[in-house]
Every structure is written in C-alpha cells, then in structure tokens.
Design a protein that fits this description.
With 850 residues, the protein is α+β, with helices and mostly antiparallel strands. It contains 20 helices and 35 strands. Among the domains are: 163 residues, PHY domain (Beta-Lactamase, 2-Layer Sandwich); 167 residues, Heat Shock Protein 90; 111 residues, 3-Layer(aba) Sandwich (Rossmann fold), CATH 3.40.50.2300. It has a 7-stranded antiparallel beta sheet with strand order 1-11-3-2-6-5-4.
Length: 850
C-alpha cells in the first residue's frame, strides 16, 4: 500500500534512474522546450516513431506529429494556468501507423512534458458515469455506508480484485474503513497500517498527483534519455502519469502478493484524508480515460464527504450550543449549580461523552462519576497550570501529563480540561476511562530494523500477517469536533463565572455600603450619646472644687474613649494605628506645657477592643504624668513598642526628667485602669515600676490583638512635639460680640455648645428644629451659624440654603463627621465631628473667618 517516491537513496545499490528518471510501459514520454525543440525522450520512443532517441534529441517536435495534434496540444497547454495542473487529450492518432493514444501534458522545470499511452477510439460518456456513481453515493444513510459505496463504485468502474478506502489518522497511521473485493481473497477491512508504510514524502506527493497506477510489478521501467540535462538536473516526474515507482514499493507489493495497483487520493479541506487503494493479483491497466473518470469521482466523493462531515459537525455543535444555552439559563436562576458536579456532569457529558467530571474552583473541588484519586486530581490541576495554555487541553494518555498515572490508569486514562478563569486557573475536567482494545495491524508495527539490499531505511515489509496489539493506559481520544464544542462551553462557563463574579462583587458593594451606613449610623449615635453624657456631667457640676475635679477626670476619660472610637471607626470598625492613638493623647494634653511625648516603633495596628483599652490606659498615664510626673515639669515621656518572635506586642512607657517619684499612697480608679485593663480585657500583662527617676510601665498585648500596618510608610514612628490641645484655653476675643445661631436637637448637647460659645464671648440663639431656626432668621440677623445636620427626621440643609442666600457664614456638626453626606451646593462647608469641644469649635470658627 505504501509508495516510496522520494526517499533517501544513499544506501541504495540499484540504478537510481528507475526511481528518478523512468516511466512504465507501454507508453512514451517527450520533453520539449517552449520553442518546440525536443529536449528528452523515453528510451522506447522508437516504438512510436521508428527512430532512435539520440536522433530525436534537439530536433523540432512539428517534424514528427501532425498539425492537428500540435494545434490541440497548444490549446491544452494554454489552459495550464495553475501549478500541478495536468491537461488531457483522448483518442489522438500518433506515429506513422496512426495508432490511438491518450495524452497528458504538464509543465516541469520550464519544460513541457508530453506523455502518451495506448487508448481506445470510442470514449464513454464520463459525465453520465460520474452522475450515476454519485447518485448511488448520495443515497447512503451514514458514513460507514458512504465509504463502502465509494469502494464499490470504484471497483465497478476499474475492475480491480480489491478496492479499499484507506483513512489516515492524525499520527500518520492508516486504517481500512471500507472494502469491496471479489469473493475468496480474504478481507483487509479494519486492519491498521503504521505511518512508516506511507512516509511523509509519499503523502506529500499524493496531494500533488492524485492518481497513481502500477500496471505490472514485474515490468521493466523505461529510462528517460538523457538522464541529466545540460545543467546537471534530472527530470522531475512528480506529476507524470507514467512515472515508474521505487523498487522498494515494487518489492513491498510483491511481498503482499499484489501484481498491479492503483491509488486515488481523497483530499478533504486541502489535506490528504485518505486513498482509494486498488489491488489486483494479475497485471492490469485501466485506460487513461477510465482513470480520469475515477479521479473525477474521487474529487466528487471528497466534496460529498466534506459536506457530510461538516453537516454532522454543524448538527453536533448546534446541539452543543443548545446545551450551552441551557447551562447559561440554569445557572442564571441557580448559581450553586456551577459547583454541583453531578448536574454539571449531566449537562457537559450530553455534549461531550465522558465517564466522570471534576470541578476545581478557588482551590475547592468536587467530583462526579469516574475520576482519579483526590491527590492525583490535585497533581493534574498543577500540571495543567504549568502548561500556561488558556485554551482547552486534551490527552488520551494522562501518563504523558503527570508521572505515576499508571496507578489509576485502570480507572481513568484520558481527560479534557476546560479552563474557566485566569491563572491560576479554575477547571472543569472531563475524564474518560481506559479503553483496552486490540488493534489489528497488517503485520507487526514494531518490527525491528532489518538490513536488506537497500539499506536499513529502505527494507520493505515482508510480513503482512495480521498482528494484534493490546493498547493499555489510553482512552478514546476526544475528536476535533468535541474540542471545538469544549471551546464553546468554555466561553459559556467563563461568561457564567464572570457574571457570578460581577454579581458577587455587586452584592459585596451593596453589603459594604450597607455596613458602612450601619457603622456610620452607630458611630453617629455613639458620638451623640458621648456628647450627651459629657454635657450632663458638665451641666450637673456644682461649685465644689472636689466635684469639679471629679467632673474633669470623668470628662477626660469619656473624651479619650470618644477619640479612640473615632479612630477605630474611621476605617469601618477595623484595626487602627497605635501611633495615632498616642499622637491623639499627646495633642490633647500638650498645650499647657513645653515638654514632649516621644514615641517610636514599627507601624502597628490594634484591633478595636485593644485600641479602646489602650486609649484609657494611655490617657491615665498621660493624666498622671501631667499632674505628678515628668509632664508636670520639664521632663519627657518616651514610648516604644516592638513585637517578639511569638507576635506579642510589648509597649514600654518611660518618664524622664521629672520630679522624684513616690508610689501612690492610695489605689484610685486611674491606677486600677493602668494595672488591670490589659490583663483583664486583653489577656495580656501589665507592670508598673515607680522608680525615683521616673515611672516605667510595661504592657504585653497578645498577638491576636495585633497586626502589622503594612500600608504605612516608614519603618518607625517619631511623633513631633504636639502643638494642639483639646483643653485649649478659651480666647474671649476669638468671636467677640458676634451673634451665633445654634441649631441642635439635643438639649444637653446644645447647653454644652452654648457654654463653649459663651466663653468665647458670643451671644447664642438656639433652635431645635428647622422651623424654629427659620423663625429666628425671620426676626434676627446672625454673624454665623452652627448647624447640626440631622434633626430627628429632618435635616438643616434648608436652613443652610437660606443662610447662604443671606450671606451668613456657617458650618455643620454631625456625629458622622467627615462621613456625613452633604448636598453638592454645601460640599465646601466645614463639618465638625460631635461631641462639641473647645478645640473643634475654635478650629471651625478659625476656618470660617480665615
């Protein structure tokens, strides 16, 4: 069946002219140049013209053929517009005797090759013959019957003992998929032939020269003379209809017992799909006309085959698209189906046959049907990621992808992986079980190399006895159509995953917004409550100095908690920087002294519970140091922190340069906070040493309350000497005699704000509702206004609109602080975060009046 047409002849000990420059007989060849001078002829030309080849070389062709033939020949040559074209003339009388010949003409290396072989005077109706053949072919119901009918039609036309439809696999091996033969000679149907039987160079030639005929394996080839031209080139007979074949192939056919053969190429999608392979056990020579009819039939056969395959693929892919739409619609209504391998397996395997499905999404996996063991599935996913291919991957031998696959090859042996995300990828993987099969070969495909008369590469196969091979560790391969369907499903699955991701992101955004709104609302309420508590304490204090001192202490502690609350809610109730806590306490108590609180440590975050606890602890330490320690004079406080190997945070407070220290004679509430808060609330440790040269306190906060602030720049925090204080002394000239409109719906908070404003020298008019504020504006003019944004179920934006029209300055106040949502026309206004303090009111007034 093979045809070694262009092989390496380095070790060939036979005359190469038989392969590269010889034709079969009967028939002759003439090569002419464009000016009709004979350049080469076959050695049997004397049989036609009665003249020796040497006498013809270099003479004009018109001296030996009729004018009519020359005219027809030139017309045919004018039709050779494309490479590899061959034109035909039938029933042409040639030579002195007027014998009828069929003629073929083509170009080769700038020369015109004219070939002739004996023909018949009366030609058949080839058009009707092909029409009848195609009619029978079109009535077949499936591809198996289609192949079989094609073989029957070729045998009926050419009369060979055996006609086979031989199909190439992607590996180059071939298989007999249909056969028509005379009874009693056995069957080759289902036999496989290794790729080496028809090497690549022979297959390339089959694409150029569609019909190849060997009339008699025992006939002697006829050489072309001269064997080489003046440029030292041999004649190229790739398109010749009479070209002789390799002696290797002749020996191959003899080993099969074949005396004559013919092959017709089947070209589908511009590729060599297969052959009509014809064998005869006696010499046989179908006419050129009959062979031409069969060539036309083979071209029509290939077109019908391509059409049928495309129709089947189209129908299959349409079903796949329907399944894809079904998958998309189902997941749209129930996204959990994507992680249900049983449902997903039913959907996918209805489009691509498989025995099991594995789903890998975000490191989670689920299985349905026959799949590899879990750890092997993980190895397969890792191997797929290493391929770095964002397309469908398939193999019929998992052992070629991961080592050790033989351990589970009896369960699954092939896979098709559909990536459904970016790298590292998520996958839906279809598995196929091992397909143990006996492959029938026409002889042992693994036969050892044999050294024969033509060298190690050219020894033809001698044994064609059926040989069976059991194939293990492989699955049925996924077809190109199934791979294309997998690509379609991949696009659908990615669309589903992206849509689910978008929906999840949208839900997270809504949830985050809802959470932020809830936190902001709680924060607002907490700040208002703290403001009310501070106002109650301040408004309730009598004239007793002891009680006033108590009120001051409680107010400071509440304010410390308020500051901590502000900081841990700035990032939506999350960890807050330790450095910011210390800085806030330092700023709150630095205005009355010139000493410094210096802090240094790696950027560190405390969770909300630890942050609130340490806020009280640091506040008490600062308060005590301000009254009795280094901050009461010219001393300093050094604060440092670091984390140990276990992640626990150690914070050290060291006072230096202050007055001599004596341990407290009684244990007050502040001392209790410092000593017991960290051990009791956080499960940590606290130790205070009242050394004479300065108090030293050490606190150990467990690692679960601490995290590194990776987003903070710098390796350490060095706090500057603070310059701002919430205990800022009242400046009576800050406002002077200005009139102020205060809009606040909480009486206690309003009283607290009035006290602060009165100490600044202002006259205050207070309203608790927008309506009351408008009544005041109807009767009075104000220098500026403070507007609480949220007034029960109303806002103060309408009052702000009117103040804007009147040209009156104003700023807002809110428990939401900077998170408060302002209308566009008021976005530039200052917002004071409640509770009111001397500091934040003074700062806002300075901003308003520049």
């Amino acid at each position: 069946m093979a045809d070694f047409d262009k092989v390496d002849l380095t070790n060939c000990d036979r005359e190469p002219i038989h392969l590269l420059g010889a034709i079969q007989q009967p028939g002759f060849l003439i090569a002419v140049s464009t000016d009709w001078i004979i350049a080469r002829v076959s050695n049997n030309i004397r049989d036609l013209l009665g003249m020796a080849p040497a006498d013809l070389i270099g003479t004009p062709l018109p001296d030996y053929v009729s004018a009519n033939f020359l005219h027809d020949l030139r017309n045919r040559i004018s039709l050779l517009a494309e490479p590899d074209m061959v034109e035909r003339l039938f029933a042409c009388p040639l030579g002195p005797s007027g014998q009828i010949y069929d003629v073929a003409v083509h170009f080769s290396d700038g020369q015109i090759i004219i070939e002739a072989e004996p023909g018949t005077a009366a030609g058949g109706d080839s058009t009707n013959a092909v029409r009848a053949m195609m009619s029978r072919l079109d009535r077949t119901k499936d591809l198996t019957a289609f192949y079989r009918e094609g073989a029957r039609q070729v045998r009926a036309l050419l009369g060979y003992d055996r006609v086979m439809v031989y199909k190439f696999a992607a590996t180059g091996a071939g298989a007999v998929v249909a056969e028509a033969c005379k009874p009693g000679i056995g069957s080759f149907l289902g036999l496989n032939y290794p790729a080496s039987d028809i090497p690549k160079q022979a297959r390339a030639l089959y694409k150029r020269n569609l019909v190849r005929v060997i009339r008699d394996v025992n006939a002697e080839p006829v050489p072309i003379v001269p064997s080489i031209d003046g440029a030292g080139k041999r004649i190229d007979l790739s398109l010749s209809i009479l070209r002789s074949v390799s002696p290797i192939h002749i020996e191959y056919l003899k080993n099969m017992g074949v005396a004559a053969s013919l092959s017709i190429s089947i070209i589908v999608n511009d590729e060599l799909w297969g052959l009509f392979a014809c064998h005869h056990y006696a010499p046989r020579a179908p006419t050129f006309e009959r062979r031409s009819v069969c060539e036309l039939f083979a071209e029509m056969f290939a077109m019908r085959l391509e059409s049928r395959e495309r129709r089947l693929i189209s129908e299959y892919e349409q079903r796949a698209r329907d399944i894809s739409d079904q998958l998309l619609g189902a997941v749209a209504s129930d996204e959990t189906l994507l992680q249900d391998p049983d449902w997903l397996g039913d959907i996918l395997t209805s489009a691509i046959p498989a025995d099991g499905v594995g789903v890998w999404i975000n490191g989670n996996y689920a299985f349905s049907g026959i799949v590899p063991p879990t750890e092997d599935f993980r190895r397969i996913v890792r191997a797929l990621n290493a391929l770095a291919a964002g397309r469908v991957y398939t193999t019929d031998h998992i052992g070629g992808l991961v080592d050790g696959a033989h351990a589970f090859a009896d369960q699954v042996a092939g896979l098709l992986a559909i990536p459904i995300s970016r790298s590292p990828r998520d996958y839906v993987i279809l598995f196929r079980r091992e397909l143990k099969q006996s492959v029938r070969w026409a002889g042992d495909p693994h036969k050892p190399i044999e050294y024969g008369p033509n060298g190690p590469r050219l020894t033809p196969r001698e044994s064609f006895a059926e040989w069976q091979e059991t194939v293990e560790g492989h699955a049925e391969p996924f077809t190109p159509s199934q791979i294309r369907v997998a690509e379609t499903l991949r696009a659908t699955l990615i669309e589903v995953v992206l849509r689910l991701a978008d929906e999840a992101a949208a839900e997270r955004r809504v949830s985050t917004a809802r959470q932020e709104m809830l936190i902001a609302e709680l924060n607002h309420r907490v700040r208002n409550i703290l403001g009310v508590i501070r106002g109650l304490i301040r408004q309730s204090q009598p004239d007793s100095p002891e009680v006033q001192e108590f009120v001051r202490l409680v107010d400071g502690r509440i304010h410390a908690l308020a500051r901590a609350h502000n900081q841990i809610t700035d990032d939506h109730w999350g960890p807050a920087p330790l450095g910011a806590l210390i800085e806030a306490e330092a700023a709150a108590f630095a205005a009355d002294r010139q000493s410094a609180i210096l802090a240094e440590g790696e950027p560190t975050l405390l969770n909300p519970q630890a942050y609130s606890t340490m806020a009280l602890v640091i506040h008490e330490l600062v308060t005590n140091s301000t009254k009795y320690g280094s901050l009461s004079g010219e001393g300093e406080v050094h604060i440092g922190w670091s984390r140990d190997d276990s992640g626990d945070l150690t914070l050290v407070w060291q006072e230096v340069g202050g007055p001599p220290v004596t341990p407290p004679r009684r244990k007050g509430f502040g001392t209790t906070i410092v000593n017991r808060s960290v051990p009791y609330d956080l499960g940590g440790k606290a130790r205070i040493d009242y050394a004479v040269d300065g108090v030293r306190a050490t606190f150990v906060i467990p690692a679960r309350h601490v995290s590194e602030a990776r987003n903070l720049q710098g390796s350490a925090i060095q706090l500057p000497k603070p310059t701002v204080s919430s205990q800022k002394a009242v400046d009576p000239t800050l406002i002077g005699q200005k009139s102020v409109l205060l809009v606040e719906d909480s009486l206690i908070i309003a009283l607290d704000a009035e006290d602060i404003l009165n100490r600044f020298g202002a006259s205050v008019s207070t309203a608790s509702t927008p309506e009351a504020a408008h009544d005041l504006l109807d009767n009075s003019r104000f220098d500026f206004a403070i507007l609480d944004i949220n007034l029960g179920d109303q806002t103060s934006f309408g009052v702000a609109d009117r103040l804007r029209e009147l040209g009156t300055s104003y700023f807002f106040a809110s428990g939401y602080g900077e998170q408060a949502s302002l209308p566009m026309e008021h976005r530039s206004a200052t917002v004071v975060q409640k509770p009111y303090t001397t500091h934040n009111i003074a700062k806002a007034i300075e901003e308003v009046f520049g």
